[in-house]
């Protein structure tokens, strides 16, 4: 779509664009060079800032450092997410079913629960568990992640149910399925499929939010970075941050790619059902 | 209930801190995010690349990590942001602008192709097409998702509690720690203040969404 905003460039426009791109590139390279020089003057590239990653001081091995980051830190992050995600999915599913029941007064409590948990910060929910129920840090993190994401997942699934053609439900009733059967056998399988990309995207949010454990005292990846920096010296914060941020980016971007891939797959398979196979399918919409 | 009444000044000062954080970061994020979105659809490849990189990096980074960077990592190479309010504003607006960019961009892409084609056909340039035809229409359909982004921002200000800002959540935590037997009540007070922001804003987004849907 965005390519419609300007003409297919002719030779002169192409030259102008090339010049613009080159000027932009030169500017960016210039800024980067300045930043690089500044960092160099600050001694950011000295071995004494980075050796924690391959030859750490204080008689520790590099293996210990990496283990504390990847196995213990990332492990704790993933463990909290791995416990919270299935819980949020199951509870979200139940809430979505409850929210779509026939009677308005039966629906009301589900609506209230969803609106309440959607409107509150995840960190507050974690504090409720930590200070209010007196739970330990891990349970508090899992509680916060679960109740927030269950509300969001319920809303995603509700949107999925609402987007289904009415004929699906009518056909299910017509062949004599009960309401529960219609929901479980006809509507939900389709809703989950169309909403799969959003669900995966929500899992990325859940994983990102597990870093709030840092604030409530759960020893996850950020805490591992801080512990290492406090033990080996604050000058290693940069090196440890680069590793920690890199881990987050790799994990989250892989999940995001999975979501995009699922989206492409679901539109393609859905398309083959309705599109006349003799017609060449239109180019996939660029997003 | 006495607990809430007794600590009302603390709650209110925290609430005001949260509101100020939300408004200032929100304003910066809206401006930066819109500029980023214009860069993402522009014909100049380097601008596109820059915007895409920024958005992808920030969207896949936890907000806590952005705060962590400003508070612990940046001082190691001599960049010291004033602790507290302005650190929180920088982190929140940097993070939120990526989401604003995505919302505005999907709005731009949601304007029917014929509009841009017609604008091109009457000879408007890229800048004119964008500012006179596409953006005014995109803004309408972008407002509900933008409100949702700002609601998320209001909730995200709570992360500043972990980094030396005494906003709403940090005030509530103090009250809860000082009155351990009434911790639930103290935190419920915090929840109430957040809901005062988020629920009306959510309803507003819903109403506007329906309005825009009917207009199309």
Automatic annotation (TrEMBL), chain A:
A GO cellular component annotation in the UniProt record: ATP-binding cassette (ABC) transporter complex
All residue ranges annotated as the ABC transmembrane type-1 domain in the record: 74-259
Membrane topology: Multi-pass membrane protein
GO biological process, one term: amino acid transport
Sequence intervals crossing the membrane: 21-40, 76-98, 110-131, 137-157, 196-216, 236-260
Keywords recorded for this protein, A-Z: Cell membrane, Membrane, Transmembrane, Transmembrane helix, Transport
Organism domain of life: Bacteria
A single GO molecular function term of this UniProt record: transmembrane transporter activity
Compartments it resides in: Cell membrane
Family to which this protein belongs: Belongs to the binding-protein-dependent transport system permease family.
UniProt protein name: Amino acid ABC transporter permease
TrEMBL record, chain B:
Listed SUPFAM superfamilies: MetI-like
Single GO molecular function: transmembrane transporter activity
GO biological process, one term: amino acid transport
Membrane protein topology class: Multi-pass membrane protein
Family annotation (Gene3D superfamilies): MetI-like (1.10.3720.10)
Keyword Ligase: no
Residue stretches making up the ABC transmembrane type-1 domain: 15-205
Main location: membrane
CDD domains reported in the protein's UniProt record: TM_PBP2
Keywords annotated in UniProt: Amino-acid transport, Cell membrane, Membrane, Transmembrane, Transmembrane helix, Transport
Subcellular location: Cell membrane
Residues making up the signal peptide according to the UniProt record: none
One GO CC annotation: ATP-binding cassette (ABC) transporter complex
Record field: transmembrane: 12-36, 57-77, 183-208
Family: Belongs to the binding-protein-dependent transport system permease family. HisMQ subfamily.
Protein name as catalogued: Amino acid ABC transporter permease
Organism: Cellulomonas triticagri
């Amino acid at each position: 779509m965005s390519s419609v905003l300007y003409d297919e460039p002719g030779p002169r426009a192409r030259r102008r664009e090339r010049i613009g791109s080159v000027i932009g590139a030169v500017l960016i390279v210039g800024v980067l060079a300045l930043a690089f020089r500044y960092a160099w003057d600050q001694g950011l590239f000295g071995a004494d800032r980075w050796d924690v990653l391959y030859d750490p001081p204080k008689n520790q091995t590099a293996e210990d450092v990496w283990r504390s980051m990847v196995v213990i830190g990332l492990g704790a992050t993933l463990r909290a997410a791995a416990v919270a995600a299935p819980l949020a999915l199951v509870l979200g599913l139940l809430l979505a079913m409850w929210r779509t029941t026939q009677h308005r007064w039966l629906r009301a409590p589900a609506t209230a629960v969803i609106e309440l948990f959607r409107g509150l910060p995840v960190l507050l929910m974690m504090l409720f568990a930590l200070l209010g129920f007196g739970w330990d840090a891990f349970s508090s993190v899992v509680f916060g992640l679960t109740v927030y994401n269950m509300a969001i997942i319920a809303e995603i699934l509700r949107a999925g149910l609402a987007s289904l053609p009415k004929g699906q439900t009518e056909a299910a009733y017509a062949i004599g399925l009960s309401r529960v059967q219609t929901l479980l056998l006809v509507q939900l399988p389709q809703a989950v499929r169309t909403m799969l990309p959003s669900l995966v995207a929500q899992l990325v949010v859940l994983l990102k939010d597990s870093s709030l454990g840092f604030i409530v005292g759960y020893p996850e990846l950020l805490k591992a970075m801080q512990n290492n920096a406090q033990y080996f010296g604050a000058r290693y914060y940069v090196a440890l941050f680069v590793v920690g941020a890199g881990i987050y980016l790799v994990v989250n971007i892989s999940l995001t790619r999975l979501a995009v891939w699922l989206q492409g797959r679901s539109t393609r398979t859905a398309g083959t059902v309705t599109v006349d196979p003799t017609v060449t399918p239109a180019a996939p919409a660029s997003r | 209930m006495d607990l809430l009444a007794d600590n009302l000044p603390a709650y209110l000062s925290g609430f005001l801190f949260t509101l100020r954080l939300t408004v200032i970061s929100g304003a910066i994020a809206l401006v930066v995010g819109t500029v980023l979105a214009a860069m993402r659809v522009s014909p100049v490849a380097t601008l596109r690349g820059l915007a895409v990189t920024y958005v992808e990096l920030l969207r896949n980074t936890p907000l806590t990590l952005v705060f962590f960077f400003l508070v612990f990592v940046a001082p190691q190479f001599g960049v010291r942001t004033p602790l507290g309010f302005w650190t929180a504003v920088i982190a929140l607006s940097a993070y939120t602008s990526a989401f604003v960019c995505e919302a505005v961009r999907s709005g731009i892409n949601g304007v029917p192709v014929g509009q841009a084609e017609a604008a091109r056909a009457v000879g408007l340039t890229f800048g004119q097409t964008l500012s006179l035809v596409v953006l005014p229409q995109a803004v309408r359909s972008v407002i509900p998702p933008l409100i949702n982004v700002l609601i998320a921002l209001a909730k995200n200000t709570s992360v500043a509690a972990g980094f030396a800002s005494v906003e709403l959540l940090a005030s509530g935590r103090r009250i809860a720690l000082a009155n351990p037997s009434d911790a639930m009540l103290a935190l419920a007070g915090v929840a109430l203040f957040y809901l005062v922001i988020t629920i009306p804003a959510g309803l507003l987004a819903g109403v506007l969404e329906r309005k825009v849907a009917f207009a199309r």
